[in-house]
Amino acid sequence: MFVAVVPAYNEESNIGSVVQSLFGHVDKVIVVDDNSSDNTFHIADKAGAIALHHRINRGQGASLQTGQNYALEIKADYVLHFDGDGQFDVEDIKPALEEIKKTNADILFGSRFLDNRTKIPWFKKYILFPPARLFNKIFGGVDLTDIHNGFRILNRKALEQIKIEQDRMAHATEIPAKAKKLGLKYIEFSVRVTYHRYGGGFLHGLGVVRDLLMGKFLK
Amino acid sequence: MLILFQILFTLFVLFAIVSVVKKKKEGLLGPKGTFFWIVFWLVAMGFVWWPDSTVIVANYLGIGRGTDLILYVSLAIIFFILFRLHVKIESIGRDITKVVRKDSLENLDKKD
Predict the structure, then answer these.
(1) Hey, how many other C-beta atoms are within 10 angstroms of the C-beta on A89?
(2) Residue A159 half-sphere exposure, CB side, CA atoms within 13 Å?
(3) How far does B107 lie from chain A, in Å, by closest CA?
(4) Quick one: which of A1, A80, A96, B87 has the most CB atoms within 10 Å?
């Protein structure tokens, strides 16, 4: 069974169409509503998703792990991480799943840098990403072309072994680092991202670094 | 003037020590913590009553003035406590996440 996990926070304007667009590409859609103040939960539920609700806002990493726990319960073979704001293209899902199966990889990371389909804001591309990529390499020993891309596919083995402990955004560095540490086979795959909003900036990056450093002192 | 400050500070130290003992009785402070805070306040009181004693310690450590010594030590302690608090808050945050996660999965099971 192929299951999509969609973390969502205040995404009432996008979540319905994202859920509907996912059907036909995956078998089940799990939406984890991270205590949105809008109607995200009910819209996701109505659209046919398995809607989970966090009573307290815990962050994207926490929402993904909640979805993964449920995916494990329902015995999913593959799990897709997919953003709830409609920035990813569902047409990338099928070829990505075929690729992870064909290569016998445990985890697939989406990348915006393997072709020219994604128009990345220049400040991100030339100023923010290079040091962030270097940081990921130093922190996790993982050399990926992209950073903090929310499109991933995990097989059952990766799903069982990778437990996301970074509740907020640092999970995007934590997951590749854990994949490497656990000796899981990972690959990159080209995906298209359409920017509806700017997303994380410099302060976001600093928050990620702080969370990762703090995580080193926690058990 | 110094006498007035010394008396006020002593009263404050007594209040602080009483609070520490209370917290210990309520089970909010362990034996190590209780010992540390009582000694901390007694030493602070000692420095206030005998200001020259800080100069002796400062000179021994190669620091010019007693007040500088107190400033450096205080800053180091404050930063350490802040760091410990930060780690503790993060750890509590992760515990909260586990509870929230369990609750959300149980609610879904109930719905089914």
Answers:
(1) 16
(2) 26
(3) 8
(4) A80
Is some CB atom of chain A closer than 8 A to the CB atom of B107?
yes
Chain A partners within 8 Å of B104 (Cβ): 32, 52-55, 66
What string of DSSP letters covers chain B? Answer: -HHHHHHHHHHHHHHHHHHHHHHHHTTSS-HHHHHHHHHHHHHHHHHHH-THHHHHHHHHHT-S-HHHHHHHHHHHHHHHHHHHHHHHHHHHHHHHHHHHHHHHHHHHHHH-
pLDDT tens, residue by residue, B48-62: 999 888 888 889 888
**What are residue A108's DSSP bridge partners?**
A153, A187
Alpha-carbon gap, residue A25 to A45, rounded angstroms: 18
- What is the value of pTM for the model shown? 0.84
Best mutation target among A52, A164, A210 (most B Cβ atoms within 10 Å) is A52
pLDDT band at A197 (very low <50, low <70, confident <90, very high): low
Contact A23, A48 (CB under 8 A): yes
B95 lies within 8 A of chain A by CB? no
Amino acid at A217: F
